[in-house]
TrEMBL record:
Name of this protein: Flavin reductase family protein
Keyword Flavoprotein: yes
Keyword annotations: Flavoprotein
Family: Belongs to the flavoredoxin family.
InterPro entries membership: Flavin_Rdtase-like_dom (IPR002563), Flavoredoxin (IPR052174), Split_barrel_FMN-bd (IPR012349)
Residues of the Flavin reductase like domain: 14-187
Pfam families reported for this sequence: Flavin_Reduct
Organism from which the protein derives: Catenulispora pinistramenti
Cofactor: FMN
Domain of life where this protein originates: Bacteria
């Protein structure tokens, strides 16, 4: 076994999938924000969201959301949204250099696609799209981020990642975009599957 050393990294992003949140602004336009703090429990998706951002502002007023899940090939478009906020004026708590951008679709080049059960649009390029509604959120222990629970109402999947004629995603066809210590990765080759996998094979 290798030796472990104590370190104090500035961030602890050990590799989680990136999702792209669509929420509705006061004027009915859409805000887009990439986040990597997202995980699923059944049809509930838990999100970690900065309390000072436009996404948090929108969700406190209008609970509809689309959780769009991009593949690795979309990393540059995701990164084009890293330095912008839909919040005006830009909160002082945001990282230095962050600028206000009201049209996130234009700046990223993503394509807006009408949703079926919620108001904010889906992002057409994302292989998985979850239309959802959030419950009132709680602040996390440090007070600067919100723990948001989103109840998924409708799932859309690119036909190319679905096992035809089933409700199953083909794990060999689907790959999330992984945020790994502030660097972007895709998945490596499959290692195996859990005993609970029901994927037809
Ligand atoms: C790959 C990536 C992952 C991110 N993860 C998170 C996250 O988990 N939670 C969060 O609040 N912000 C995260 N951010 C930062 C937000 O995208 C950023 O604060 C943005 O300004 C939010 O936009 P908004 O203020 O319009 O909602 C991430 C950014 C990138 C590029």
């Amino acid at each position: 076994m290798s030796e472990h050393v104590p370190i104090e990294p500035t961030i602890l992003y050990f590799g989680t999938p990136v999702v792209l949140l669509s929420t509705e602004n006061d004027d009915g336009s859409a805000n887009l924000a990439p986040i990597s703090s997202a995980w699923a429990l059944g049809y509930t998706i838990v999100l970690g969201l900065g309390a000072d951002g436009q996404s948090a502002y929108n969700l406190a007023r209008r609970p509809d959301i689309v959780i769009n899940v991009p593949g690795p090939h979309l990393w540059k478009q995701i990164e084009s949204l890293a330095g912008v906020t839909g919040r005006f004026p830009v909160p002082e708590s945001k990282p230095a250099g962050m600028r206000y951008e009201p049209d996130k679709f234009a700046v990223s080049g993503f394509t807006s696609q009408e949703s079926v059960v919620v108001n904010p649009p889906r992002v057409a390029e994302c292989g998985l799209q979850f239309e959802a509604r959030v419950a009132p959120a709680r602040l996390g222990v440090t007070g600067d981020f919100l723990i948001v629970q989103a109840q998924v109402l409708k799932v859309h999947a690119d036909a190319a990642v679905v096992i035809a004629g089933t409700n199953y995603v083909e794990p060999a066809a689907w790959s999330p975009l992984i945020y790994n210590f502030r660097h972007y990765f895709g998945l490596g080759p499959e290692l195996g599957h859990t005993y609970r996998s029901q994927t037809p094979r």
